[in-house]
Amino acid sequence: MSDLFHIIKQRRSIRRYKSIIPEMELLKELIESAIMAPNAMNRQDWQFTILLSGETKEAISQAVERTWNNLCQEQSAINDAIKAYMGNFTTFINAPVLMAVDVKKPPIFLETLLKEKTIKVMGSYASACLAVQNLLLAATAKGLGTCVYTGCMAAEQEIVRILGIPKQRELVCLIAIGYPAEQPKTPPRKDLEKVVRII
């Protein structure tokens, strides 16, 4: 158990990687750890796409940059702040491996019944997030670095097209994976008193 807590505390978001490509068997091990996560009604709605192609990663990076530039065409203090941060949305281009995680969309009858509550009730997104956390911790235990990207979701339609993800599925996030070329310091965390409520 102490080893688990050590891995949890050791995990970092890595944005600089060595050029070594992790072996496919190792990547499959990470996914095996991911799919052991709890999931809604054991539907296992998740799907993992492993990207090794530099051209595909470049196409996704360009789509993300193009989308955010279009969103920030109007000059304002907010847009300037977003532009200053936009570079973080595409640092996955430096990773040897990029993994896309997608899930099955809710059925139409459920969306009709629950409307905006559908995603929370169906649980596919929550299940995918639990699987991703398993994957991140397994990667850390294997000496790999990872980083989860959601800023790229602004370009979801283009990414889905590039990856050939079926229409009945939707993207959750991208994960960069590789051997780390940096060792970031532990970022500060809020005190428990600020994030815990006891009723």
Throw out a few tags for this protein.
alpha+beta; NADH Oxidase; four-stranded antiparallel beta sheet; globular
Order of helices and strands: HHEHHEHHHEHEH
* CATH topology label: NADH Oxidase
- Superfamily (CATH H level) name: NADH Oxidase
Oligomeric state of the chains in view: single chain
Low-confidence stretches: none
Write out the strand line-up for the largest beta sheet, numbering strands in chain order: 1-2-4-3
Question: Strand content of the residues, in percent?
Answer: 5-15%
Whole-number tally of structural domains:
1
Radius of gyration: 18 Å
Mean pLDDT: 94
CATH architecture: 3-Layer(aba) Sandwich
Q: How many helix segments?
A: 9
Q: Name the shape in a single word.
A: globular
Our measurement of the CA-to-CA distance between the termini, rounded to an integer number of angstroms, reads 29 Å
Give a short account of the largest sheet.
4 strands, antiparallel
Please estimate the helix content. Answer: 40-55%
Could you give the count of β-strands? 4
Structural class category: alpha+beta
Protein name: Nitroreductase family protein
Pfam families: Nitroreductase (PF00881)
Domain Nitroreductase: 8-179
Family: Belongs to the nitroreductase family.
